[in-house]
């Protein structure tokens, strides 16, 4: 039976074997197999090949019980990314198929196994950040990564994507990105946030927009390098660096990431004025715009009293209602012309 199977399917069966020794041996063999396939670009992995491999890796983690053994396996799975001979397409495809797999299998994960699979999500995100860091945060590679993230784990409006995955990635994203803060420039750091700007505009779930605002954008504000006034410093003493996901005993002082606050404000302002932005999301978006404009001016946005007033600011900060109306009229006119053409075609018949 095994002689008629392709290598990927055979690996999937062995990775999900009941015997730990067979699973461990299969992981080691898989590393060598991936390396051998990626020495040249003549026989790259297809999406179908990786779907089979990730099915086996998923159930390899499923069968793993003890916490320390789970962490060891978690590292081995993530380190498979190093075996693709720095082939950008293959690495992105490997991560893409991982998210396809976890999205498909998420509903079947019970509460006793959920922690280890959430750990694997975090580790995959950290590993791909490490890969991007090794590529000096290449713009083209970041663009491909962002596109993949929006299509799969961060596609909040797609009912096929479990909300738990999207929320979990939102919670850990800044924490993991901050670990590479010394090597990423502020402008590139903002590029890594592009999917979340779009999510703020298009999400149909108000609770997620609020969550995104608090757990991602406001975390950036709370951990910014802008000084806090002495009289309110005590109020901020309880704020934990980079969210609640960090362990109590973990030292976060070594993590340092800087963002271009002006660029964040401009990006948020742009999506807030876009036609695809839902009306109910605009208030939260423009509230963030105010806060990041305050940071840009060296003012820590403790409350609404020290925020710049967008209505009294320069014309560039105001929503361009005239332009939006003009675009809407143009679309209405275009639709009307199409309707008239259809009516004429019917009369001619």
From TrEMBL:
Q: Which Pfam families match?
A: Nop52
**Cellular location(s):** Nucleus
**Which keywords does the record carry?**
Nucleus, rRNA processing
Q: Name one GO biological process term.
A: rRNA processing
Query: InterPro entries from the xrefs?
Result: RRP1 (IPR010301)
Keyword Nucleus, does the record have it?
yes
A Gene Ontology cellular-component term: preribosome, small subunit precursor
Family statement: Belongs to the RRP1 family.
Which PANTHER family does the record associate with it? Answer: NNP-1 PROTEIN NOVEL NUCLEAR PROTEIN 1 NOP52 (PTHR13026), RIBOSOMAL RNA PROCESSING 1B (PTHR13026:SF0)
- Kindly provide the name given to this protein in its UniProt entry: Uncharacterized protein
What species was this sequence derived from? Brachionus calyciflorus
Lineage per the UniProt record = Eukaryota, Metazoa, Spiralia, Gnathifera, Rotifera
């Amino acid at each position: 039976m095994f002689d008629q199977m392709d290598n990927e399917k055979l690996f999937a069966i062995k990775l999900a074997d009941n015997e730990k020794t067979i699973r461990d041996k299969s992981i080691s063999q898989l590393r060598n197999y991936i390396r051998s396939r990626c020495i040249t670009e003549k026989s790259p992995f297809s999406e179908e090949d990786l779907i089979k491999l990730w099915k086996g890796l998923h159930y390899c983690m499923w069968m793993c019980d003890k916490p320390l053994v789970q962490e060891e396996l978690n590292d081995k799975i993530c380190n498979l990314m190093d075996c693709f001979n720095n082939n950008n397409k293959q690495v992105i495809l490997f991560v893409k198929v991982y998210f396809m797999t976890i999205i498909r299998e998420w509903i079947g994960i019970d509460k006793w196994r959920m922690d280890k699979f959430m750990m694997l999500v975090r580790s995959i995100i950290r590993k791909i950040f490490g890969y991007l860091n090794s590529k000096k945060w290449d713009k083209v590679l970041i663009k491909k990564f962002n596109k993949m993230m929006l299509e799969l784990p961060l596609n909040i409006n797609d009912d096929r994507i479990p909300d738990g995955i999207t929320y979990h990635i939102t919670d850990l994203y800044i924490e993991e990105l901050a670990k590479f803060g010394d090597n990423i420039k502020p402008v590139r750091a903002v590029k890594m946030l592009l999917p979340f700007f779009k999510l703020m505009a298009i999400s149909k779930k108000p609770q997620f927009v609020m969550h995104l605002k608090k757990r991602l954008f406001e975390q950036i504000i709370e951990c910014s390098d802008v000084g806090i006034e002495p009289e309110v410093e005590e109020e901020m003493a309880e704020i934990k660096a980079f969210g609640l996901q960090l362990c109590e005993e973990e030292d976060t002082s070594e993590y340092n990431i800087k963002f271009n606050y002006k660029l964040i404000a401009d990006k948020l302002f742009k999506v807030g004025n876009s036609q695809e932005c839902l009306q109910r999301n605009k208030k939260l978006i423009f509230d963030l715009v105010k806060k990041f404009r305050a940071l840009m001016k060296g003012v820590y946005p403790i409350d609404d009293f020290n925020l710049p007033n967008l209505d009294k600011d320069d014309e560039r900060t105001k929503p361009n209602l005239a332009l939006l109306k003009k675009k809407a009229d143009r679309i209405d006119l275009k639709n009307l012309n199409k309707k008239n053409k259809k009516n004429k075609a019917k009369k001619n018949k």
